[in-house]
Every structure is written in C-alpha cells, then in structure tokens.
Write a structure and sequence with these properties.
single chain, Rossmann fold, 15% strand, globular
Length: 80
C-alpha cells in the first residue's frame, strides 16, 4: 500500500530533475539517512510541518536529519 501511494505521488509530482521515491520501515531519521548514504545522494529534500510548540522552527525528524546527515539537506516548510 505504501509503495502504491509513493508511486502515485511521484507520478503526480514529476520532478524536472531525476528523483526517485523509496519506502522504508524503521525510525524515520535513521532510515532516511541510511537510504541517502546507500544511494549516494547529493541532497536530501524533505518537508516539515510546523511543530506544535511554536518556539521551534523544525520538527524533531527534520532537525535530526539536518544535524547528522552526510548530505546537504533542504527543508521545505508547509504553508500556513
């Protein structure tokens, strides 16, 4: 079910550059960083929602990936 949803999303939002979707199971930040290393990615692009505590700029998963990933990370925040 997750793979089908990812395929549908990728088809609807076809990127101008080469982009591939991946489905993994485990801790979100660990799986994203492992996949980026395994795939030899140059950039991790991720979305971030506004955390419940308004004092924070990013959610916990985005923060951990930004701090610990070997790649550059571009975080896109959802509009209000």
């Amino acid at each position: 079910m997750a793979r089908a949803a990812m395929s549908e999303f990728m088809a609807e939002h076809e990127a101008a550059s080469e982009a591939k979707g991946h489905v993994a199971h485990g801790t979100i930040y660990d799986e994203i960083m492992k996949a980026a290393d395994k795939l030899d990615c140059d950039l991790i692009l991720m979305g971030s929602h506004r955390p419940e505590l308004k004092d924070y700029l990013l959610g916990p998963n985005a923060v951990r990936i930004v701090r610990h990933a070997n790649q550059s990370v571009f975080v896109v925040r959802a509009t209000a």
